[in-house]
Design brief:
Number of strands: 0
Distance between the termini: 83 Å
Structural class: mainly alpha
Radius of gyration: 26 Å
Order of helices and strands: HHHHH
Length: 119
């Protein structure tokens, strides 16, 4: 069997791992073994938190909509139920943005939701 010389590829792999670990604390930025271990953890956290970010933003939007709806004398659930009955198909991201930037438009949405829920 022929011999495989790996020095170039091995060095390239180690160098790229250490470059990715720049800025880590302690040996994690200079020791290949420690850097490799930390990168495994870091990639896991990054994968997990890309999904958690969506969850966190949805919670933030709901809090903002709830606060604006309560200023109009409604709860979040009655407001959203009224919008569904009225046929308003805006997602929470847009509604939260309207609640923060344009209270007058949100007030009109609240009136629409109130009328639809009462009917």
């Amino acid at each position: 069997m022929s011999r495989v010389k790996r020095s170039v590829h091995a060095r390239k792999k180690r160098r790229s791992t250490l470059e990715r670990a720049k800025g880590y604390r302690g040996q994690k930025h200079s020791s290949y073994k420690r850097a490799k271990e930390q990168l495994l953890k870091s990639d896991t956290y990054a994968y997990r938190d890309r999904r958690n970010k969506k969850r966190d933003f949805r919670r933030l939007w709901i809090q903002r909509i709830n606060a604006a709806a309560r200023q109009e004398g409604m709860t979040y659930s009655t407001f959203m139920h009224g919008l569904t009955l009225a046929g308003v198909e805006l997602d929470r991201k847009v509604l939260a943005d309207i609640a923060v930037r344009d209270p007058e438009t949100f007030r009109r949405f609240a009136d629409t939701a109130r009328e639809a829920a009462a009917a």
